[in-house]
C-alpha cells in the first residue's frame, strides 16, 4: 500500500471515538518498532517527522523508510511533517513524497497564521496531502522548538472554530494544557476547550505532548473529540533506557545490533500500549 493522507482514517476516528497515534520517527529502529506494533494490532498510524529529525535522517531516507513500511505492512500509514515552520519546508516534504504536513503558524499573529495555513492547504490539497494546523502555543521542548510553560497560551474556542472555517485544515492542534517532553506532575488538560471546538467543527482535534498523559485523561480527551495523539518522548526514553541497560550489563559490547535490538523491542511495547489505549487497533 502506498502512503496515505490522514483523511484515510481521521474522519472515521472522530466518528467512532478513537484516536490515531502519531509516533515520531527518529531513525530506522523507531520506524521498524512503530510498524511492528501497528502490524500486530492492525492499526493505522502516522509517522511524525520533525524538521530536526528530517535533518538527522535526510529526506530521502525518511521517505524511503516510510514507503518501505507501508509496502511491507499493507497498513494505512501517513508520513507527516511535524511542526513545519514554513510554506517552503512543507512543499519540500510534499515534493519528496510526504502524504501529510503540519504547518505550525502559532508563533505568528492569528490573522497571519490563517493566511499562511491557507496557502499550505491550497497547495497540499491539490496533491492529495492532508494538513494539520496549530492554534495557541504548546509548552515544553521538542527539537529546536522551545516554549516556556509560562508563555504557552491556550487556544480560544471561537478562534479555533474560525481558524478551521477559513483554512479548511484536516485536523487542528490546539493548545489545551499538554506540553512536549515529560511532565513533572500531571498535565492540566482543558477538556472543555476540546469539547467546544470539536463539537463545532467536523474535523478532529490533535493532542500534542501525549507522552506521560494519564490513561483516564486520554480517554476523556478522545471522548471530547481528539482524533490524533502525538507520542515521541516515551519512545525516546524507552529506547535510551534499553540501550543504557544493555551497555551497563556488558561493557564489552561493540556490535550496535546488540543494544539496538532491545531498544527496538522496548519501543514496540510502548507503541502497542498506546494503540490499545487510543482504541485504534483493528481499525486498519
Ligand atoms: Zn507537537
TrEMBL record:
It comes from Paenibacillus agricola. GO terms for molecular function: fructose-bisphosphate aldolase activity. SUPFAM superfamilies: Aldolase. InterPro entries: Aldolase_TIM, Class_II_FBP_aldolase, FBA_II, Fruc_bis_ald_class-2. This is Class II fructose-1,6-bisphosphate aldolase. Transmembrane segments: none annotated. Its cofactor is Zn(2+). Pfam families: F_bP_aldolase.
Amino acid at each position: 500500500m502506498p502512503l496515505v493522507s490522514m483523511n484515510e482514517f481521521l474522519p472515521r476516528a472522530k466518528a467512532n471515538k478513537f484516536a490515531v497515534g502519531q509516533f515520531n520517527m527518529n531513525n530506522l529502529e523507531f520506524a521498524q518498532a512503530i510498524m511492528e506494533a501497528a502490524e500486530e494490532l492492525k492499526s493505522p498510524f502516522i509517522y511524525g517527522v520533525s524538521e530536526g529529525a528530517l535533518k538527522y535522517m535526510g529526506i530521502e531516507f525518511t521517505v524511503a523508510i516510510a514507503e518501505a513500511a507501508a509496502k511491507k505492512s499493507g497498513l494505512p500509514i501517513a508520513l507527516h511533517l511535524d511542526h513545519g515552520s514554513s510554506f517552503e519546508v512543507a512543499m519540500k516534504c510534499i515534493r519528496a513524497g510526504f502524504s501529510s504536513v503540519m504547518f505550525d503558524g502559532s508563533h505568528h499573529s492569528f490573522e497571519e497564521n490563517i493566511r499562511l495555513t491557507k496557502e499550505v492547504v491550497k497547495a497540499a490539497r491539490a496533491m492529495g496531502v492532508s494538513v494539520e494546523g496549530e492554534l495557541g502555543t504548546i509548552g515544553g521542548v521538542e527539537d529546536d522548538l522551545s516554549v516556556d510553560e509560562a508563555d504557552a497560551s491556550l487556544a480560544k474556542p471561537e478562534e479555533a472554530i474560525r481558524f478551521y472555517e477559513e483554512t479548511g485544515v484536516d485536523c487542528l492542534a490546539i493548545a489545551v494544557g499538554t506540553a512536549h517532553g515529560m511532565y513533572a506532575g500531571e498535565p492540566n488538560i482543558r477538556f472543555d476547550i476540546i469539547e467546544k471546538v470539536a463539537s463545532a467543527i467536523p474535523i478532529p482535534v490533535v493532542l500534542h505532548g501525549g507522552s506521560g498523559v494519564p490513561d483516564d485523561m486520554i480517554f476523556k480527551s478522545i471522548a471530547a473529540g481528539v482524533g490524533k495523539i502525538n507520542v515521541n518522548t516515551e519512545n525516546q526514553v524507552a529506547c535510551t533506557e534499553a540501550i543504557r541497560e544493555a551497555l551497563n550489563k556488558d561493557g564489552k559490547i561493540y556490535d550496535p545490533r546488540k543494544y539496538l535490538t532491545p531498544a527496538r523491542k522496548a519501543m514496540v511495547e510502548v507503541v502497542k500500549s498506546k494503540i490499545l489505549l487510543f482504541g485504534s487497533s483493528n481499525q486498519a
